[in-house]
């Protein structure tokens, strides 16, 4: 509805899942931080 591409929408959904995983398994925080950084850079 806001003109967000399907691929980007999927990326946000996956990111939300990663955030939930981070809450469940704090020891994966480093991996999630790396994924988040890559995601932000990908968005430009």
Number of helices: 2
The coarse overall form would be flat
Q: What is the first-to-last residue Cα distance? A: 22 Å
What fraction of residues sit in β-strands?
A: under 5%
How much helix is in the residues?
over 70%
Low-confidence regions: none
The arrangement of helices and strands along the chain is HH
Mean pLDDT figure = 66
Provide the structure class. mainly alpha
How would a textbook summarize the main sheet? none
Q: Roughly how many Å is the radius of gyration?
A: 12 Å
Number of strands: 0
Please tell me about this protein's structure:
The chain is mainly alpha-helical and 44 residues long. It is built from two helices and no strands. The chain has helices spanning 6-24, 29-43. The longest helix has 19 residues, at 6-24. The chain is flat, with a radius of gyration of 12 Å.
Can you lay out the helices and strands and say which pair or pack?
Elements: H1 6-24, H2 29-43
In short:
By secondary structure, this protein is mainly α.
Task: Summarize this structure as a short list of keywords or feature phrases.
44 residues, mainly alpha, 2 helices
């Amino acid at each position: 509805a806001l003109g967000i591409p399907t691929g980007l929408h999927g990326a946000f959904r996956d990111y939300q899942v990663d955030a939930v995983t981070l809450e469940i398994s704090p020891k994966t925080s480093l991996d999630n931080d790396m994924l988040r950084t890559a995601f932000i850079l990908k968005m430009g």
